[in-house]
Amino acid sequence: MRKLRLVLWIPLIAFLAFMAAFAIGLYWPDNHQIQSAMIGRNVPEFSLAPALDGRPGLSSQDLRAGQPHLVNIFASWCIPCRTEAVQLAELSRRGIPVDGVAVRDRPEDLAAFLGQYGDPFRAIGADNDRHVQLSLGSAGVPETFIIDGHGVIRHQHIGAIMDSDIPAIVAAYEAAR
Amino acid sequence: MKRAFLALAILIATPAFADSLLPPARLANVQLPDPRQERAAKALMETIRCVVCQGQSIADSDAEMAGDMRSMIRERIQAGETPDQIRAWMISRYGEWVSYDPPLEPKTWPLWGLPVILLLAGLWLVRGRIRVRRN
């Protein structure tokens, strides 16, 4: 009889365990950042036309030319992208070549965006159908990749670059040399 | 006057979209002419997770990125790729998380095995009752 009483508590305990699981999910929701599965792998083949007149486009061949690169995926319609031009310029000042992939952009919007917020880019490729972004495993804008001189993806930064992110990005670039 | 101004302000205000100004991708919302290819593409889209609206499949999501992924899937199906090849490509980019159709492998045994285990546990729970009925 005593044993049976203990068994009767099991549904209540199971119920409380479920409630605890739901409470954890509600109060500390999973902020799921999607890490690219391409880190450590070769940059996929691509060749993007120039997004602006008078500035080179970007191809996977450029990224394998022996020197590491920083590739910033951005767009003029992306609000957080406005804030990181200063940080990208700082990275460029430290000798890191900054290349851009402009996602679904129009040349006139892009020119206005760069004129207003700053222009740290050496080259900008136009990814109008988003194929390059998808093939890099990038889930949004802005994102920043460090690619070593052999074209292997070494580092991914998700979201706008803050001042506090600069050391990690510089370290990833130095490690990719 | 103030009310009229407020009404006007609401009418002319536009929401800040996190989308581009370019039109949707060519095959984002356009079915393939071949119904068999379209069926294969649709079935695949329903099991690929949208990376923007992370609880939805790309077939259900209105995010621009989901449209671009749908267009890419239709283009590839049309070019003769199989849904399994395209799924493997997506997984190689975004990880297994992007697929709603988990493969059967050691890591996912609990997922596939749990229904069987629960059924056995249920049978074990009611075994006493079955015996009583027989008597």
Properties at a glance:
heterodimer; A: 177 residues; alpha/beta; Glutaredoxin; 5-stranded mixed β-sheet; two-stranded antiparallel ribbon; elongated; B: 135 residues; Helicase, Ruva Protein, domain 3; 2 domains
Structural overview:
The complex is a heterodimer of chains A (177) and B (135). Chain A contains 6 helices and 7 strands. In chain A, strand 4 (98-103), helix 4 (107-117) and strand 5 form a beta-alpha-beta unit. Chain A starts with a helix and ends with a helix. Chain A is 37% helix and 18% strand. Chain A has a 5-stranded mixed sheet. A two-stranded antiparallel sheet of chain A has the order 1-2. With 177 residues, chain A is an alpha/beta fold. The radius of gyration of chain A is 22 Å and the shape is elongated. Chain B has 2 domains: 23-101, Helicase, Ruva Protein, domain 3; 104-135, no CATH class. Chain B is flat. The mean pLDDT of chain B is 88. Helix content of chain B is 56%, strand content 0%. Chain B is mostly helical. Chain B has helices spanning 2-12, 35-45, 64-78, 83-94, 109-134. Classes of the chains: A alpha/beta (177), B mainly alpha (135).
The largest sheet of chain A has its strands arranged as: 5-4-3-6-7
Task: Give the tally of structural domains of chain A.
Answer: 2
Give me the secondary-structure category of chain B: mainly alpha
Q: Name the beta content range of chain B.
A: under 5%
Q: Which oligomerization state do the chains in this entry correspond to?
A: heterodimer
The CATH architecture name of the largest domain in chain A reads 3-Layer(aba) Sandwich
The CATH topology of the largest domain in chain B, please?
Helicase, Ruva Protein, domain 3
Shape of chain B: flat
The CATH superfamily of the largest domain in chain B turns out to be Cytochrome C biogenesis protein
Uncertain runs of chain A: none
**Which range does the strand content of chain A fall in?**
15-25%
Give the helix tally of chain A.
Answer: 6
Please tell me the CATH architecture of the largest domain in chain B by its name. Answer: Orthogonal Bundle
